[in-house]
Amino acid sequence: MNGPRFNEWIQSPRVRVIDENGENLGVMYTREAMAQAQEVGLDLVEVSPNADPPVAKFLDVGKYKYEAQKKANAARKTQKAQEIKEIKVRPNIDDHDYDTKMKKIVEFIGEGDKVKVTLRFRGREMAHGQIGMALLQRVQQDTAEIAKVEAYPRMEGKQMLMVLAPK
Fold this sequence. Notes:
With about 170 residues, the protein is α/β, with parallel strands linked by helices. It is about 35% helix and about 30% strand. It has helices at about 30-40, 60-80, 95-110, 130-140; strands at about 15-20, 25-30, 45-50, 55-60, 85-90, 115-120, 145-155, 160-165. Strands 2-1-4-3 form a four-stranded mixed beta sheet. Strands 5-6-8-7 form a four-stranded mixed beta sheet, with helices on one face. The two termini are about 35 Å apart.
């Protein structure tokens, strides 16, 4: 765990002490500082072990851990999990249908999501893989300004897949 070290004996015989209000009490012996912290009902916590002399602070360890956990939870709430949205197309897609699918791809990437473009082959279309590859390259070129290719086109069974991610 980064930050203050809890429940550890401070190695140095003298430490710079900061009280619960953030005021510097000066340099004193570790035992004396621990006694003062206990009088106030707090713990002596080493905040900066690499300083000379090390810096220790009067803290309520339980309250400190609680506040740190609250901050971590708040940070986790504000994060947006990146989802993978899927767009399914066929090799012989019409221009209008292609434009509609492209609008959705641009919308998803604008929201910060990844887009998995799935090209489905049926029947004899499997013999014409180059048509599918050309279609996926066209998608790649049309989204080149806003997205980068995370997974290049590859065949998986009867479908060809490509993953786009926001730049």
